[in-house]
Amino acid sequence: MLSHLFGAQSIYLGEIDEDSRQRHAIVLVERLRAAGRKPYLIGENVALGCLGYVNAALELHQQALAQNIDLRQVVIVGAMGGTAAGFLFGTALLGHPFHVHVISVEYPQEQLWSILKTNFANIGALLELTPSATLAEVTTVHAEYLGPGYALPTPESIQTIRDLAKTEGILLENVYTSKTVWGMRDLIARGIISTQEATCVIHTGGGPALFAQAELYQP
C-alpha cells in the first residue's frame, strides 16, 4: 500500500540469484542516469552502508556504561552480512567489550562467515582503521536456526512471535527478527549465553512483513 502511495514502481524479476539481481539493478540504474535521473542503488557500496551499525555498537556501549550495565553478550541477525559486519567492526574498535552472536537467517555458516570477513575488511579500508580485536575474537556465527531457508518460518520462530507479542508487546516477523530472538532464547537455554550475564538482542525492524504472514497466526 505504501509503495502505491509513494508512487513507487515495482519490478519483479522472479526466482533469480543475488548476482543476477544485482546485474539487473545496475542496468536499471544506468538507464535512469542516462535519462537524467539520480538513482541511489542500495548495496552498491556495502562498506558505506555498514557504517550506521558501526555507530550502533559505539552507541550501545555508551548506553550500557551510562546505565551501569555490564553488557557481555549481544545477539544480532546475520541478514546479508552488512548489518552484522558493521556492528562487529564497531565492537572490535571498542576492544571487544561484549561478544556478538550472529544468527544466520539466509546463508549457511561458512558462506555467511566469508561475507562477514569481506565486509569487515572493506569497512576497515574505507575508514582507514585497524581494530584492536579481530573478527574471530568478537563473534560466533550460528546457522542452526535458519530452518528450511530465508523467510521460511519454523515452529520455533512462530512460537517466538506469539510469545513476544503476548508477554512484551514486541512484534517480530519471520524474515529477520523471530529467528534471531529464537536463537537468543535457545543459546540461553543451552547455557551458551549465561543467565547471569547482561544480554542485548538487536531488533532490526521489519514489522510490515508480519502482515504478509497473517495466515500463520489465525485462531
Characterization of the model:
This protein has 219 residues and is of the alpha/beta class. The chain has a single domain (48-217), classed as 3-Layer(aba) Sandwich (Rossmann fold). Helices cover 50% and strands 9% of the residues. It has nine helices and four strands; from the N terminus they run αααβαβααβααβα. It has helices at 2-5, 18-34, 46-66, 82-93, 109-127, 135-138, 155-168, 177-189, 207-211, and strands spanning 71-77, 99-103, 139-142, 198-201. Strands 3-2-1-4 form a four-stranded parallel beta sheet. It is globular and about 60 Å long. The two termini are 25 Å apart.
The sequence of SSEs as H and E is HHHEHEHHEHHEH
- The level of helicity is 40-55%
Please state roughly what percent of the residues sit in beta strands, choosing from under 5%, 5-15%, 15-25%, 25-35%, 35-45% or over 45%.
Answer: 5-15%
**Strand line-up of the largest beta sheet:** 3-2-1-4
CATH architecture: 3-Layer(aba) Sandwich
Distance from N terminus to C terminus (CA atoms, Å) equals: 25 Å
- Tell how many strands the DSSP assignment holds: 4
Provide the gyration radius in Å.
19 Å
**CATH topology label:** Rossmann fold
Mean pLDDT, to the nearest integer, reads 95
Q: What's the story with the biggest beta sheet?
A: 4 strands, parallel
Low-confidence stretches: none
Q: Please state the structural category.
A: alpha/beta
How many domains would you count in the coordinates? Answer: 1
